[in-house]
Task: inverse folding
């Protein structure tokens, strides 16, 4: 080994051991009051973190509740299918039978009788010039 290579290795080992032995410089944390005397920057950050965690949990719960409600609605529709089908078939059958079998007309109530009286004869209208025979016809001779 050459002398310059050995020297460079020695320099490298010194810098590595110096970096390991050196203690990290601790800078004092500045406490910034958001609300003087009551709320510091660090407590504010922890509150925001907690709130974000609660939002994540709220989203998960909302997703679960939505799935449960959708499933309940599907079961409700399945449960209501038979009664609705029976009701629909009954109404259609009743309408068909009523069309085929006419009922006797019982007439109107006596209190509605004046509405069904015959109207009086209308007054004759004035002569219409377009009516047949209203315009005199003149015959010319050649």
Result:
């Amino acid at each position: 080994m050459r002398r310059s290579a050995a020297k460079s290795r020695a320099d490298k080992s010194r810098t590595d051991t110096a970096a390991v032995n050196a203690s990290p410089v601790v800078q004092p944390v500045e406490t910034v009051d958001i609300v003087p005397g009551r709320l510091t920057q660090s407590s504010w950050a922890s509150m925001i973190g907690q709130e974000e965690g609660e939002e994540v949990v709220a989203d998960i719960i909302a997703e679960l509740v939505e799935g449960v409600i959708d499933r309940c609605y599907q079961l409700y529709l399945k449960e209501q299918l038979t009664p609705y089908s029976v009701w629909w078939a009954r109404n259609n059958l009743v309408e068909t039978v009523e069309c085929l079998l006419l009922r006797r007309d019982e007439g109107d109530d006596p209190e509605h009788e004046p509405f069904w009286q015959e109207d009086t004869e209308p007054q004759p209208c004035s002569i219409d010039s377009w009516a047949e025979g209203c315009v005199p016809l003149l015959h010319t001779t050649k």
In short: Residues 29-102 form one domain. Residues 30 and 78 are 64 Å apart (CA to CA). The radius of gyration is 51 Å. The chain has a mean pLDDT of 77.
